[in-house]
Amino acid sequence: MTPEELVQHSIKAQQRAKAPYSNYSVGAALLTDDNSVILGCNVESKAYPTTLCAERVAIFSAISQGFTNFTALALITKDGAFPCGSCRQIIHEYANGIPIYIANESGNFITKYSSDLLPFPFG
Ligand code: THU
Asked: 0.85 exceeded by the pTM?
């Protein structure tokens, strides 16, 4: 699957985001070694800290479904934002070494790796 195709999948996830408080929808698409695509979106709560980020939803969902080997991750936001610190930690632990396509609403993306995002990781 091309990076562009994985970014297209992340748009589907972004459309499913529940972000009524921040109005900031995030989509994630995680590609597995058998070419499955696991989606994640941010899901916000009235109890704000309970909110989950799109990246962690995708990774935790994939693991829950039995997928453990990942080959790429696409993220999309309106402004091409980078993952938060908590997500960087989880990406480091469970999706290390794979290209991360960080896209904006135009579909333009840059490619980063966990080592770029979290250069001095815990653990
Ligand atoms: N968010 C993510 O989904 N991923 C991140 O890496 C950073 C932030 C979500 C959480 C919240 O729903 C919204 O974006 C605004 O912070």
From this structure: yes
